Batch of 2 targets.
Target 1
Amino acid sequence: EDQVTQSPEALRLQEGESSSLNCSYTVSGLRGLFWYRQDPGKGPEFLFTLYSAGEEKEKERLKATLTKKESFLHITAPKPEDSATYLCAVPYNNAGNMLTFGGGTRLMVKP
Amino acid sequence: DTEVTQTPKHLVMGMTNKKSLKCEQHMGHRAMYWYKQKAKKPPELMFVYSYEKLSINESVPSRFSPECPNSSLLNLHLHALQPEDSALYLCASSHSRGRGNTEAFFGQGTRLTVV
C-alpha cells in the first residue's frame, strides 16, 4: 500500500536555528512529490514539486530535496513567520492528480 | 494568478438543512477536486472532476453531491449531514495529465459546522 510518512510531527526552533523536515514515501512509480505549507484554518499553499531523485528546489529560506525513498525540506535561518504545518503529498493514481498526504510537521519558530 | 476562490468561508447548518459550497478558478485547469480536512489531520480526497466529468468518488456518502457546471466552477451540495461531517472543506484545481505540471492549487476552504 502506498504510504507517506512525515517526521517529526512537531518541531520547535529558535529564530535562526536551521533544521530539516522529513517525508518518507513508498509508492510504485513516483509521479511527483509535492510540498505544501498550511496556516491554521487556511488551505494548503503550494511550495514545490519534485519529480526525480537528486532534484532540488529553493524558495527563500526553504530548500526541498528528493531521493528514491524520501524528501527533505530544509529550513535555513527560520523566522517566526515560517511557523506553519508543512505537508508533503504524492499522487497515487496513474494520472498523477489524486494526492495522498503525509500527516504533516507542525513547525513553531520562536523569536 | 494561482487563485482558487471558495464561498462561503464559514457555514453553520442543521442536520435537516440543504446547503451548497462553491468553488471557482480561472487558471484554465481542467481537473477540480473536493477534499475534506478534520482538525490536526491531513486533507483527504473526496471527489475528482476531469473535463467537467466526475472521474473519482472516494466512497463518499450520498449526502454529499458534487456538481461541475463548467470548467471554472465546482459545487458541493450538502443534505442531511451529521455532526461528524463538520470539517474544513477544500477545493483544489490542477492541470490534467499531459497538460503540464499536475500540482494542485487549493482554495482557503469552507469551515463547516453541523449542529
Target 2
Amino acid sequence: QKEVEQNSGPLSVPEGAIASLNCTYSDRGSQSFFWYRQYSGKSPELIMFIYSNGDKEDGRFTAQLNKASQYVSLLIRDSQPSDSATYLCAVFSGGYNKLIFGAGTRLAVHP
Amino acid sequence: GAVVSQHPSRVICKSGTSVKIECRSLDFQATTMFWYRQFPKQSLMLMATSNEGSKATYEQGVEKDKFLINHASLTLSTLTVTSAHPEDSSFYICSARIRDRGYNEQFFGPGTRLTVL
C-alpha cells in the first residue's frame, strides 16, 4: 500500500500568520489530492481538493500541487485560533480505488 | 450539499451485545461508502469499502464476521459490530463518495462514539 506522509507537528503559528502544511506521497499515479480538517473529537471536514499542478485558492486557503516532486501543501493565510485542528492530507489511489490518508499535522494558532 | 449523517452519534453497550450504526447520504447518491475507525490521538483507519448491492471489501486485519457491513441502497450503509467487547470502543466514522463525480472526494459523517462496558 502506498504511503502519504505528513509531519505530525504540532505546528505552532501566531494569529495572523501564514500556516504551511506539507504532505508527500509515494504513488506517482495518484490523480487527486485532498485536505481535510479534523477538530478534536469530530469527524474530518473537506477543505479543498486539487488535481492539477500549481495552486488552487479558496478564501484563506491555498493548495499547492507538484506532481513531479510528489508534494502537496496547504497554506492558511491570516491564521485564526479557530484554525487550530489536525489537518489530514489524502491522496486518491486509483489502483486501490480509495483515499489514502496521512497521519495528520496538528496546527496550533496562538493569539 | 454533500451531507452525510450517522446514527446514533453515541452508544454505550454491554460487552457481548451487537450494535448497528447507520450512515446515510442525505442529498446525493453514493456509489461507495467507507467505514473508518479512529482511536484517541490516532489517525483514521479504514475498515472497509462498501458498494451498493455488493459485498464489502475489508482491509487486512479487519474481521468481516465481526464488523458486518450492508449497503442496501445508494443512500444507506450500515455497520454492525457483533458481540462487541471493550477493545471495540472507538470512534466510528463513515464517508461517502458522490456518484458520477469524477474527483473522488469523500464526505464524512459526524461519527459514532461507541463505548463497550
